[in-house]
Design goal:
The protein is an alpha+beta fold and 390 residues long. It is 40% helix and 16% strand. The chain is built from 13 helices and twelve strands. The strands form four sheets. Strands 1-6-7-8 form a four-stranded antiparallel β-sheet, with no helix packed on it. A three-stranded antiparallel β-sheet has the order 3-2-12. The protein has a three-stranded antiparallel β-sheet with strand order 5-4-9. The longest helix is centred in the last third of the chain and has 30 residues, at 288-317. The chain is elongated.
């Protein structure tokens, strides 16, 4: 089958991929996604954001004239329940999509449909296999090369989640934008590894007042190693004669400012992803109070923008033109309350007391059977009296 485009008139979009990183990276070589994930901070930030988003409940709602209702029969809702493809659950797929976008600037999945156009699956496509083309019509085409097979997917056949773009067509990874920061982190890590792998740092030296001959030096070395080397000889009393003196020698990472450099690199990379340090296990400045606040900040300022991008891209790519007017995907951040029972039950209490939730709605959320009379909303109580002076 002939491909429906003319190579002479087709214009390739600017390639904003990891291949372009070599020109922007500092001296020492280009940074790749796999190289960047060797830094524990990058891995922790990507994992924290991707897994947190993937763990939230996902719902497909149908909008009505005055409200909205859950549409369990929608094709996307079936994929959420049963898995978008034979190899992944919905959380697995969403985690992969977000992680790919964070590391490479783009997350791409093929939208599979049946002959009637009904959604049947979402299949991930590694961004390294993709070349993006801008067609004369202004639409994008995605050439996917898998082993020896090459195929073309059109814009309406893929779900394309982008990080911030320079041209509105293809996303650009934040690791590429701040390549110098990533390279600095890799350099510090490489230096630390070489320091402990190749460095020679004896715990001390023996000093003599005069010159020690070769035979005496060999005998002294053998005797000293036999008497004091190894864990079995630890803390033994040392007796020296013939004017010998023991001089301890030590070197610390602090002296080379290594620990300070690694700590600063952690903060820099966490800032790159908008991830509070306590979320990724950096508690150097953490307390119980600010760690709890960091969790709310993480949900509001890190996760919410990504969740909104996913919901909007799903509406644009997955839903048909008719569905866009009536349906929407929602990733429910209230799923975080699952791990905070005190806050969750306080929210339920406020909802029931103010006539927002019926008792049976709360019981349904908690997985309990309904009770008789629990479907009625309770009237909101009178407002609390104002406090008066005196």
């Amino acid at each position: 089958m002939r491909w429906p485009w003319t190579p002479k008139t087709e214009r390739r979009a600017e390639d904003i991929s990891w291949q372009a990183l070599a020109a922007l990276a500092p001296a020492g070589g280009a940074v790749t996604a796999r190289m960047a994930e060797n830094l524990s901070t990058v891995l922790a930030c990507v994992s924290a954001i991707a897994t947190a988003i993937a763990s939230q409940p996902a719902w497909v709602y149908r909008r009505t004239a005055k409200a909205r209702e859950l549409d369990e029969g929608h094709a996307l809702m079936r994929l959420i329940r049963q898995g978008p493809n034979p190899h992944q659950t919905w959380p697995d797929f969403l985690e992969w999509l977000v992680a790919s976008t964070l590391l490479r600037g783009n997350g791409l999945a093929e939208i599979q449909t049946d002959p009637r156009g009904t959604l049947t699956g979402l299949v991930p496509i590694p961004w390294e296999f993709v070349s993006v083309q801008l067609l004369p019509s202004g639409r994008l085409a995605y050439d996917v090369t898998e082993t020896t097979r090459r195929r073309r997917l059109l814009q309406g056949e893929v779900l394309h989640l982008r990080d911030r773009s320079d041209d509105g067509l293809v996303g650009r990874s934040r690791l590429q934008r701040a390549a110098a920061v990533v390279q600095a982190g890799l350099s510090v890590q490489e230096f630390a590894g070489a320091l402990y792998q190749n460095g020679v740092h004896p715990s001390g030296v023996l000093e003599a007042d005069g010159v020690v001959g070769a035979d005496a030096l060999k005998h002294l070395k053998s005797q000293f190693k036999e008497a004091f080397a190894g864990s079995g000889n630890a803390a033994k009393a040392m007796v020296l004669d013939q004017g010998l003196k023991w001089k301890p020698v030590s070197i610390s990472p602090e002296d080379a400012e290594l620990l300070a450099s690694r700590r600063f690199t952690t903060e820099e990379l966490a800032r790159l992803f908008g991830c509070p340090p306590p979320i990724i296990g950096d508690l150097s400045h953490g307390t119980f109070t600010n760690s709890e606040t960091a969790g709310r900040w993480f949900a509001q300022h890190t996760l919410t923008p990504w969740i909104r991008k996913i919901e909007a891209e799903a509406a644009r790519s997955i839903f048909s033109e008719a569905d866009r007017a009536t349906h929407e995907l929602e990733l429910d951040l209230s799923g975080f309350l699952r791990g905070d029972p005190e806050t969750r039950w306080k929210s339920h209490e406020i909802g029931v007391k103010n006539g927002i939730l019926a008792p049976n709605e709360v019981r349904e959320v908690e997985g309990w059977n309904p009770i008789e009379g629990g479907d009625a909303l309770r009237p909101a109580g009178p407002p609390a009296p104002e406090a008066r002076d005196g």
